[in-house]
UniProtKB/TrEMBL annotation:
<feature type="domain" description="IFT121-like TPR repeats">
    <location>
        <begin position="1020"/>
        <end position="1119"/>
    </location>
</feature>
<dbReference type="Pfam" id="PF24797">
    <property type="entry name" value="Beta-prop_WDR35_TULP_N"/>
</dbReference>
<dbReference type="Pfam" id="PF23145">
    <property type="entry name" value="Zf_2nd_IFT121"/>
</dbReference>
<feature type="region of interest" description="Disordered">
    <location>
        <begin position="1198"/>
        <end position="1217"/>
    </location>
</feature>
<dbReference type="InterPro" id="IPR056170">
    <property type="entry name" value="Znf_IFT121-like"/>
</dbReference>
<dbReference type="Pfam" id="PF23390">
    <property type="entry name" value="Beta-prop_WDR35_2nd"/>
</dbReference>
<keyword id="KW-0966">Cell projection</keyword>
<protein>
    <submittedName>
        <fullName>Uncharacterized protein</fullName>
    </submittedName>
</protein>
<feature type="domain" description="IFT121 second beta-propeller">
    <location>
        <begin position="305"/>
        <end position="629"/>
    </location>
</feature>
<keyword id="KW-0970">Cilium biogenesis/degradation</keyword>
<keyword id="KW-0853">WD repeat</keyword>
<dbReference type="GO" id="GO:0061512">
    <property type="term" value="P:protein localization to cilium"/>
</dbReference>
<keyword id="KW-0677">Repeat</keyword>
<dbReference type="InterPro" id="IPR057979">
    <property type="entry name" value="TPR_IFT121"/>
</dbReference>
<dbReference type="Pfam" id="PF25768">
    <property type="entry name" value="TPR_IFT121"/>
</dbReference>
<keyword id="KW-0206">Cytoskeleton</keyword>
<dbReference type="Pfam" id="PF25170">
    <property type="entry name" value="TPR_WDR35"/>
</dbReference>
Length: 1217
């Protein structure tokens, strides 16, 4: 009765193995589960896993297919399928586990889903043997008995035939015995690497990037293959098969290749044959089905990693990225720095740096990158050889291909860069010297001509003349002053550093795969390609030209080693699943571990569990790094723990080591045995320890000695407790002060009711602690308690508490230097007034003026300059204004003049700018705004002049205009009264008290006229320009809104502004409005004006004439009413009998200051008001919901929009002019 068993192995990780002392193979093979599955009545011939859904699918010789599912740790039968004909040759799930394809020997193919539904079936006209899904599940590869491979899509349609380049030239029948397509779920070893392996029974195999790859890698395995399988991340391909020996026996082997098809290792397997192979999910073990046994092979991956300066650096790939992620992990601080680097091929480290070797973008280009412990690049070099072997010392980086060796002396380069960073102008004209330095740092040579070392530039020119070496390089190592290069024949070339002079040759009995020199270069450890470790004595005389002696001591199955950095006789090595420490050739008892050796010093071996780290490379844990003590260190600890100091001292004398003497010294200090401690410190060369013993001897008090010993061992709390028991809190305060633990210093000082100086010092230090961590609020709290105003200023500035800075300005006394610092900080954030106050209080008038200039507060700057007799500010203003004008930044110059209260200059510039824009046909609204702003600057200049002449400018202007106290105003006087231009009623009474004010104001006006007559020349028309463009915009708005009559009224008003507006535009618009309002007489007059304008080109005048002719042929040139423009026509009109056009006539004869700027109408009996800024009238009803003046856009009072009767109207006037 055939049986089907599911075995679950103990999946202990390496950390659990370390804690539980796992078995010799490096992992426990104890069975966690052994379940027999019943259901098949014949032998099972095919089985496949579905790890995505925890399913197992099996098929037997009768064609019965059973799908098993895992539930509560047990396997149960879920689905059964039996086609009742044909035998299943192969079946595979997609990488997602959602589909399964079943291939029968008669050519039938069935594809089903994970839930048991049949998707499709097809009969192929071939005898099938193997199948494989593509990683994305879109294609299926089928192999037939004739050794052909065909591609079909996921619906069963034929696509193409896969070319088998590896079988070209082979004569004879062959068949496909193995096919595996890596799905990329764990990322790829490198971009665009082969993932599809096809293997024939004649031993030929090809690796392809995809099924149509025309650049496949062809390999002759040298065996008769049985199966192929990629590991978990596609970096290793296992090929099982056998070789036939001379006597006809079959030797079963497993060949291992990398993704590039390079052979890695050969594993011999005992037994009668390998029927199947399978990788563990983590890729750490390979299961082999041999006869009735299952063999497990532990894999030791060649990770890209190194260890230096308490930092573990390792490279790995992620499925979502093409680059390698290089992790720099500080094993002490647990800080991680991830760097993404393309195509990393090697990682090496020594001293303070690590070296990354990468492939460049250009073909044949490779890059060596030197990094520090946090992954920051320090230096890099581009080389044009493929570095298959890389090693690093504290000063040299060595990279070698199979024929060429490259040596880079980076240490001197790095130190020179640091030295040159502070030199000014050190790079000029030193190209030749730099080239000589480069030649001294970088050298290359061919292994067949080792005496011919050249700079890379020279070597590159001669590279084409060099031939391939028949004895290629197979390993490289280096020591502080020695470089060793091993060749496949076993010859090892020795070179001295830095000169690279050949100094010796050594001969090995094997082909080395790895070399390692001990700390003094006296012994060389060699691991060959079969894992055999041997040693060479480098100091032996040797025979003939060969020096050294290859010792007979050997150890098998060694995959890692590490020499002690402080003892040339100590070596740690990994042999299978055990770690051994050799003293000379004598091994200590082993320790069960499968960790990689990172370092060996002070009788401790540091090991890293890289297999566990690579399971979660982004989040390594500190317990993945372990330290193993040597036997001598363990024995010494045991002797000291037993209390037998004499035996311990004798043992250390027989096995002298600095670490052992240090251990004895520390034990003696614990016991306060000062004589023994001093002796031990002397033996280990610890001068500070000797001084400590002398200081302890001078104390005399044993309690104080014990406290100081606690301090030495960093048990500070114990030392403080001892001081408390002695009632010596002063010593505890001193201890905490030396340690910088100022929080406890504060607590201890408060306990003693201590002195204010010590407490203030503690508060200052605590404030510094929080400042260093940018906790400014807490720092400010302690600096306030310590009354440290200087640091408090800094904290307030960082907190952006500028009000606090201002308060400090008020507290500080005049002349303190800190005031200048506060002023500079306030100035940096734009608080000009507060900054000026701080500078003035500090006595630095120049800094205050400079602050105003920097922040463009020119009015304040000029005021300060006048007050403190600083004439340079005026010149600086003019210089800056000239600079802005030269750059054509006119508006910035206007803003500058306004801030400096240079109103006339600002107005002139605005008027000029408006005139230029008018010539450029700029938007009228923009031109109007410039004229309004110019007019406002003129008004500001007048107010300033009046205020300077005497009294308040607003009061003076009000008195002059008669609108002060006691002035009576009305919107419209009763019939028979006379109204002046400003809308005042005749007969206004003025109080006698205002006579003096009026006289003073008149004097101010005379002064203004005399002082600014030349300055205001040409600027009084600013309001006229604003009015011109305002009515121009208003007329267009009225026309577009369908108010033709209103537009005509406003357009007729524009004739008064032909010195501002272009007459051609005015009369052309008047003609247009006259046409639309049926005022053809006005339209005709406008055309006459246009035809008479000499500024218009002749062609355009003729066009106007033609247009007029076409208009007036159909319409007589007459208005509906005769437009009389005299005031008498208005007076003789019948009261109450006026029509629409009569009102229009009245509007045309109204004074300029009686025209409503909101509508263009004349201000008559309707309620109206006057803007206090531009002094222009407006009818209240025409304002609507507006709260601003239509002309100058100044804000009107809230009641401005409310209707008022004639008696209630009032005049809202400004302060002056």
């Amino acid at each position: 009765m055939p049986t089907l068993q599911v075995l679950r192995l103990d999946g202990a990780t390496q950390k659990e193995q370390k804690a539980a002392a796992a078995a010799a193979a490096g992992g426990s093979n104890a069975l966690a589960q052994n379940q027999t599955l019943e259901g098949h009545s014949s032998a099972v011939v095919c089985a496949t896993w579905n790890s995505a859904f925890n399913k197992l699918t099996t098929s037997d010789e009768a064609g019965l297919i059973i799908v098993w599912t895992l539930y509560n740790g047990m396997w149960y039968e879920e689905m059964i399928n039996n086609r009742n004909k044909g035998v299943v040759k192969d079946m595979k799930w997609t990488s997602s586990g959602e589909k399964i394809c079943i291939a029968y020997d008669d050519g039938a193919v069935i594809v089903g889903s994970v839930d048991g539904n049949r998707l499709w079936g097809k009969e192929l006209s071939m005898q099938l043997s193997l199948l494989e899904w593509s990683p994305d599940g879109r294609f299926i590869l089928f192999c037939n008995a004739a050794g052909e491979c065909h591609t079909y899509d996921s619906n069963g349609n034929a696509v193409a035939k896969v070319p088998l380049y590896c079988n070209e030239g082979y004569v004879g029948p062959c068949k496909m015995v193995g096919m595996d397509w890596y799905d990329g779920s764990r990322g790829y070893p490198e971009p665009d690497c082969p993932v599809l392996a096809l293997c024939l029974d004649n031993g030929r195999m090809q690796l392809m990037r995809h099924d149509m790859d025309d650049n496949a890698i062809c390999i002759d395995t040298g065996i008769k293959p049985r199966a192929v399988k990629w590991n978990h991340n596609g970096s290793i391909l296992a090929v099982s098969g056998h070789q036939t020996t001379g006597d006809g026996a079959q030797l079963w082997l497993v060949q291992f290749y990398n993704q590039a098809g390079e052979h890695l290792r050969t594993l011999r397997v005992p037994g009668g044959g390998i029927s199947g192979i399978c990788w563990e999910g983590s890729g750490l073990r390979l299961a082999l089905a041999v006869d009735s046994h299952i063999f497990f092979t532990s894999m030791r991956h060649s990770y890209l990693w190194a260890y230096f300066a308490d930092t573990l650096v390792y490279a790995f790939t992620k499925p979502e990225r093409q680059e390698h992620c290089v992790m720099f992990w500080g094993t002490r601080s647990n800080e991680r720095y991830a760097k993404y680097v393309k195509r990393v091929t090697h990682v090496s480290a020594a001293g303070e740096f690590c070296l990354l070797a990468t492939k460049g973008e250009a073909p044949g280009e490779h890059i060596l990158i030197l990094c520090n412990a946090i992954g920051s690049p320090v230096d890099s070099k581009v080389i044009e050889l493929e570095p298959k072997f890389v090693t690093l010392t504290e000063c040299y980086a060595i990279a070698a291909s199979e024929e060429v060796v490259y040596v880079w002396q980076f240490r001197n380069s790095f130190t020179r860069q640091l030295a040159a960073a502070g030199a000014a102008g050190g790079a000029g004209g030193s190209g030749a010297a730099a080239k000589l330095q480069r030649e001294g740092r970088e050298q290359m040579f061919h292994i067949d001509t080792p005496t011919n070392c050249q700079a890379p530039e020279v070597f590159k020119q001669q590279a084409s003349q060099l031939s391939s070496s028949a004895d290629p390089i197979c390993a490289v190592t280096a020591h502080q002053h020695q470089l060793l290069v091993a060749r496949s024949s076993g010859v090892v070339h020795g070179f001295s550093l830095p000169g690279l002079a050949p100094d010796a040759q050594y001969l090995l009995r094997c082909r080395p795969a790895r070399l390692s020199l001990n700390c003094d270069g006296s012994r060389l450890a060699v691991i060959d390609f079969n894992g055999l470790l041997s040693f060479m004595d480098m100091t032996a005389a040797g025979t003939g030209k060969m020096r050294g002696e290859h010792l007979t001591h050997e150890r098998k199955d060694v995959w890692d080693l590490c020499w002690a950095s402080d003892n040339p006789e100590l070596l740690a090595l990994m042999e299978k699943g055990r770690m051994y420490v050799l003293r000379g050739s004598d091994p200590e008892e082993p320790v069960n571990s499968s960790a990689c050796l990172a370092g060996f010093s002070d009788l401790q071996v540091r090991a890293v569990f890289l297999d566990d780290i690579m399971q979660q490379p982004d989040l390594p844990e500190l317990d993945m790094v372990a330290d193993y003590e040597t036997r001598s260190l363990r024995d010494t600890r045991a002797l000291l723990a037993s209390g037998n100091k004499a035996d311990a001292q004798a043992f250390i004398a027989d096995n002298p080591h600095k670490r052992l003497w240090q251990l004895l010294a520390e034990h003696a200090l614990e016991k306060v045995d000062l004589a023994l401690a001093e002796k031990a410190f002397v033996h280990c060369g610890d001068y500070q320890g000797v001084q400590l013993v002398k200081r302890l001897a001078q104390l005399g008090d044993k309690a104080k000695q014990q406290a100081e010993v606690c301090v030495y061992f960093k048990r500070f709390d114990d030392a403080e407790d001892l001081y408390r028991q002695m009632d010596r809190l002063d010593l505890a305060i001193g201890l905490r002060s030396r340690l910088g633990d100022w929080f406890k210093v504060e607590r201890l000082v408060k306990e003693t009711g201590g002195d204010d100086v010590a407490l203030a010092n503690a508060w200052n230090k605590i404030g510094q602690y929080y400042s260093d961590r940018q906790k400014w609020a807490k720092a400010a709290q302690y600096y306030t308690q310590a009354r440290n105003t200087g640091m408090l200023v800094h904290c307030f500035y960082q907190l952006e508490d500028f009000s606090g800075l201002v308060k400090l300005t008020e507290v500080l006394t005049e002349g303190q230097p800190l005031l200048a610092d506060i002023g500079a900080k306030l100035q940096s954030v734009g608080l000009c007034a507060d900054a000026v106050a701080a500078f003035l209080k500090a006595g630095d008038t120049k800094a205050a003026i400079d602050c105003c200039v920097l922040l463009h507060q020119w009015d304040q700057a000029l005021q300060l300059a006048q007050q403190y007799n600083y004439p340079q500010a005026e010149g600086l203003l003019q210089q800056y204004a000239g600079h802005l004008l030269e750059k054509k930044k006119y508006l910035e110059a206007v803003e500058l003049y306004r801030k400096a209260q240079r109103h006339t200059e600002a107005a002139k510039l605005l008027v000029d700018t408006a005139a230029k824009l008018a010539q450029q046909r700029a938007p009228p609204l923009q031109i109007k705004k410039l004229y309004v702003l110019a007019a406002l600057e003129v008004e500001a200049f007048k107010r300033k002049a009046l205020a300077g002449a005497g009294g308040d400018g607003a009061t003076a202007a009000a008195t002059l205009l008669g609108t002060g106290a006691g002035v009576t105003t009305a919107a419209a006087g009763p019939p028979g009264t006379t109204r002046g231009p400003a809308g005042r009623t005749a007969g206004t009474t003025v109080k006698p008290t205002q006579t003096a004010a009026a006289a003073q104001t008149l004097a101010g006006l005379m002064t203004l006229e005399a002082a600014s007559g030349s300055e205001l020349k040409g600027l009084d028309n600013a309001w006229k320009g604003a009015e011109a463009y305002h009515f121009w915009l208003l007329a267009h708005q009225q026309l577009y809104n369908g108010q033709a009559a209103a537009a005509l009224r406003t357009a007729l008003r524009l004739r008064q502004y032909d010195d501002v507006l272009d007459p051609a535009d005015v009369y052309a618009f008047l003609a247009l409005v006259g046409f639309h309002s049926n005022f053809y007489g006005t339209c005709s007059k406008a055309f006459v004006k246009l035809e008479a304008l000499s500024s218009i080109p002749k062609e355009r005048r003729e066009a106007f004439a033609d247009l007029a002719m076409s208009i007036f042929v159909a319409h007589p040139p007459a208005d509906p009413h005769n437009l009389a423009e005299g005031r008498e026509r208005q007076r003789t009109a019948a009261a109450g009998g006026k029509g629409q056009f009569d009102v229009l006539l009245d509007d045309l004869v109204a004074d300029k200051d009686q025209v409503c700027v909101a509508s263009g109408k004349a201000v008559r009996d309707a309620p109206w008001q006057r803007c206090k800024t531009c002094k222009r009238a407006m009818i209240t009803a025409e304002l609507g919901a507006r709260r601003c003046c239509p002309l100058c856009h100044s804000q009107l009072p809230q009641e401005a929009g409310k209707g008022r009767g004639p008696k209630q109207a009032r005049i809202i006037e400004g302060a002056a002019a």
